[in-house]
Amino acid sequence: FSCAALALVLATSLVDALGSRVIDGETAERGQFPYQVTLTEKLLVLCGGVLVHERFFLTAAHCLFDTNNTLLSLNNLNVYYGSEKLFSNGKYNRIRSVLVHDQYEHGSTQYDLALVEVRRSFELSFNTQPVALAESALEEQQAVTVSGFGRTSEAGNTSFKLKHAELTTLSSGDCQEATGDGWYEGAICLDTSNGGGFCTGDYGGPAVFNGTLVGVGSYTVGGRCGTGQPDVFVDVGHFSGWVKAQIDEKESE
């Protein structure tokens, strides 16, 4: 094999192993989701993420910890961005620092939010743009768009391309009923009963409404995707003040 051919084979094998795409999702067009990023560890997909500033992206806090409740080594982490194709035509950035929400406890599903700072500014372009943060909670029965490179099911089918799906927000009461003791003010639930939704590799990724970021994916109720149980997201409107304060503090250093 030539070096290029070998790289393609390795990338193909990696994506096959990941089974990468949103459940029942449609293929994204070039530049359709310029805020989408992917958190990786040594070329393995950990989670999705969403660009909110030229130096920062949001993801789920749990994505940054190992099974021993230890923060992953930042030296082993990268963020992939700028392409609707996994590991093709995109760019990489290194991680400088991680700011986990101070109410998050590893192993808990609550306050599952982290702001990640990269070592150098993202190269903004048609394919790379931050998304605006929602300023208030989203009403129920609103259609939002989710996107990611996560599995299509627990078994997973292979796709090199970013996928997206439209889901509907549930009422606060329905969300509380679905999540039980895991509910907190700052969580929103999305209805996956029609088949779409997040899966492994998608969590940490965005839910967007009218061009603003309303949610960051946290988990699926019951722990298994594709079952029709709600996807639970961190309500960005509830935490936008925290996000902006952290960015302002970092920029003033």
From TrEMBL:
<keyword id="KW-0378">Hydrolase</keyword>
<dbReference type="GO" id="GO:0004252">
    <property type="term" value="F:serine-type endopeptidase activity"/>
</dbReference>
<keyword id="KW-0732">Signal</keyword>
<keyword id="KW-0720">Serine protease</keyword>
<dbReference type="InterPro" id="IPR050430">
    <property type="entry name" value="Peptidase_S1"/>
</dbReference>
<comment type="similarity">
    <text>Belongs to the peptidase S1 family. CLIP subfamily.</text>
</comment>
<dbReference type="InterPro" id="IPR043504">
    <property type="entry name" value="Peptidase_S1_PA_chymotrypsin"/>
</dbReference>
<dbReference type="GO" id="GO:0006508">
    <property type="term" value="P:proteolysis"/>
</dbReference>
<keyword id="KW-0645">Protease</keyword>
<protein>
    <submittedName>
        <fullName>Putative serine-type enodpeptidase</fullName>
    </submittedName>
</protein>
<dbReference type="InterPro" id="IPR001314">
    <property type="entry name" value="Peptidase_S1A"/>
</dbReference>
<dbReference type="InterPro" id="IPR001254">
    <property type="entry name" value="Trypsin_dom"/>
</dbReference>
<dbReference type="InterPro" id="IPR018114">
    <property type="entry name" value="TRYPSIN_HIS"/>
</dbReference>
<feature type="signal peptide">
    <location>
        <begin position="1"/>
        <end position="17"/>
    </location>
</feature>
<dbReference type="InterPro" id="IPR009003">
    <property type="entry name" value="Peptidase_S1_PA"/>
</dbReference>
<keyword id="KW-1015">Disulfide bond</keyword>
<feature type="domain" description="Peptidase S1">
    <location>
        <begin position="22"/>
        <end position="248"/>
    </location>
</feature>
<dbReference type="Pfam" id="PF00089">
    <property type="entry name" value="Trypsin"/>
</dbReference>
